[in-house]
Design a protein that fits this description.
Aldehyde Dehydrogenase, Chain A, domain 2; about 500 residues; binds nicotinamide-adenine-dinucleotide; Aldehyde Dehydrogenase, Chain A, domain 1; 16 helices
Length: about 500
């Protein structure tokens, strides 16, 4: 008998959908159908693909309310927040479809003097079938960062949504098949970790994984068996820096939203704040004043909903308990607010650096605030975890400079998480936050392979790639190389200045 998966509303526990689970056999059948669609899709033109993706975008925009209902039911987040993530996903879909030709299309490159008889070109070809494994926290926006870019690059997609948000995944795939019923361009496979693992082993041409760092390692290990390439978009522990010249009110507003929106279940949510000692007290006062007005619930005024994953409440409580037992102070909230699925905001001060609230992803509505002597200390502490996903800086004079020194894939200056709404910017992490990029030109190229072609236009002056090569050609080659590169040695003798970026 086929195993069933129940999808529930985390606010009420009500069952909102029942889905048949895919095992390895059915995943293989889905991938085989995708393979057929991939051949057809890759054989088309960029304009043809854009036409289909634009039609799909229209359907998604017109039915945004319906899709937001499904997101709201399965995650518990407010309807308006669901709408926000769908709107942003559509921006990316539009960007990917319209920029694919310029980013991926064939372009000529210079062959260089030694190969002047050649004409050289490069283009980026689709990989084939891309498997997308998604999380539950932004069940539309996050997987669409891979799905939209993979489709625009000419691939078919098999999507394994989180078991908590299966209905959203099924809805997305159904909406594309309404536009294109004859081709299985985007299909959903249903289930938890076993179904995800089966997708990794199903012979797809790439896996785009978004989820926790721990699962990312398992995905990589499974994909290593078949040398299937992976993009890993994993967890974060994002810092926000507040400089002495910052707009403190704006920084506190951003920290409040960055830490507590979506119940803190945001991979690029603000989990740690480092504030210059000159503005620390003012910042804390403003942050706490604002956070007091924020609450979790199902009422119309609630800014965020329940913890979508029930066990996440325990993680939040453990991190708060650990910090307090090491001497931290809760100026708002504390362990008592993490009693059920609705977790109210917690602000922690004086948290020792070895506390789990500083070192591990909490993924809940808590934030730590640490006073620093100067911004060098802020940068050092901010870079002190293994994660490197996003970050934020509030500073009037030094924003871009401090941003550059933060070891994270993205930094918002005088804002939080703003980079996700700019489709041209690549998104992804370093270290324990993963590797590879979605969004932007890098996100399109991620789902392709570079195809290089060197075409002989005329006979070479020097024949180099033949056993008929003459001693004269060797001598001319040596003279030419010395003339071309000999000066480089003299230039390199100059003492190197590591600060010289010219
Ligand atoms: P998770 O790691 O528990 O699950 C992610 C997905 O992997 C789910 O679809 C799950 O079914 C699947 N999975 C589980 N075991 C698997 C296995 N062995 N093989 C293949 N697939 C498997 O993560 P989650 O709880 O759904 O999401 C929260 C995490 O996602 C947080 O750590 C958050 O930071 C991260 N996240 C990262 C980004 C990003 O872009 N970097 C975005 C959103 C969320």
């Amino acid at each position: 008998m086929t195993e069933k998966l129940e999808s529930t509303n985390p606010a009420t526990g009500d069952v909102v959908g029942v889905h048949a689970v895919d095992d390895a056999t059915s995943v293989a059948a889905v991938v085989a159908r995708a393979r057929h669609a991939a051949g057809w899709w890759a054989g088309g033109t960029f304009a043809g693909r854009k036409h289909v993706l634009d039609q799909w975008r229209g359907v998604l925009a017109r039915r945004m309310g319906q899709l937001a209902d499904v997101v709201h039911q399965e995650t518990g987040k407010p309807h308006a927040d669901a709408q926000l993530e769908i709107g942003l996903a559509l921006e990316h879909l539009a960007w990917a479809a319209s920029h694919a030709p310029t980013v991926l299309g064939r372009r000529r490159v210079r062959p260089g003097l030694l190969m002047a008889n050649q004409s050289a070109s490069v283009e980026y070809l689709p990989l084939g079938v891309v498997g997308v494994i998604g999380p539950w926290n932004y069940p539309v926006f996050t997987p669409m960062g891979s799905i939209a870019y993979a489709l625009a690059a000419g691939n078919a997609v098999v999507f394994k949504p989180s078991e908590l948000t299966t209905g959203v995944g099924v809805w997305l795939a159904d909406s594309l098949s309404e536009v294109l019923p004859e081709q299985a361009l985007l299909q959903t496979v249903v289930g938890g970790g076993e179904t995800g693992a089966a997708l990794c082993r199903a012979g797809v041409d790439k896996i785009a994984f978004t989820g926790s760092t721990a699962t990312g390692k398992k995905v990589m290990a499974a994909c290593a068996e078949t040398l299937t390439p992976v993009v890993i978009e994993a967890g974060g522990k994002d810092p926000l820096l507040v400089d002495e010249d910052a707009d403190v009110v704006a920084a506190a507003d951003a920290a409040t939203w960055g830490a507590f929106s979506n119940a803190g279940q945001t991979c690029t949510g603000v989990e740690r704040v480092y504030v210059h000692e000159r503005v620390h007290d003012r910042f804390v006062e403003e942050l706490v004043r604002r956070a007091r007005d924020v609450h979790a619930g199902t009422d119309a005024d609630a800014q965020y909903g329940p913890m979508t994953l029930p066990t996440q409440t325990d993680v939040v409580r453990r991190h708060v308990d650990d910090a307090l037992s090491r001497g931290a102070r809760a100026v708002l909230g504390g362990p008592d607010v993490a009693a059920d699925r609705f977790v109210q905001p917690t602000v922690l001060l004086d948290v020792p650096p070895e506390s789990t609230a500083i070192t591990e992803e909490t993924f809940g509505p808590t934030v730590t605030v640490t006073k620093v002597r100067d911004m060098d200390e802020a940068v050092r502490l901010a870079n002190g975890t293994g994660y490197g996903l996003g970050s934020a800086v509030f500073s009037k004079a030094r924003g871009p400079e401090l941003a550059r020194r933060l070891r994270s894939g993205m930094t918002a200056v005088n804002g939080v998480i703003t980079f996700v709404g700019i489709p041209a910017l690549p998104f992804g992490g370093v270290g324990a936050s993963g590797f590879g990029r979605v969004h932007g030109a890098d996100g399109l190229r991620e789902f392709t392979f570079a195809k290089a072609v060197a075409r002989q236009r005329m006979k070479p002056v020097l024949t180099l790639t033949s056993f008929d090569r003459t001693a004269g050609a060797d001598a001319s080659f040596a003279t030419l190389v010395t003339a071309l590169h000999g000066r480089a040695t003299q230039l390199a003798r100059r003492p190197l200045d590591p600060g010289d970026r010219s």
